[in-house]
Amino acid sequence: MEEMNGARYRDLLLRFAKEIDEVGVTENMLKIIEVQIARQPNVCSTDSHEVTDRFVYRRDGYMIEAKRTVSVVVKKCK
Question: What confidence tens digit (pLDDT) does each residue in 35-50 have?
Answer without folding.
Answer: 998 898 888 899 999 9
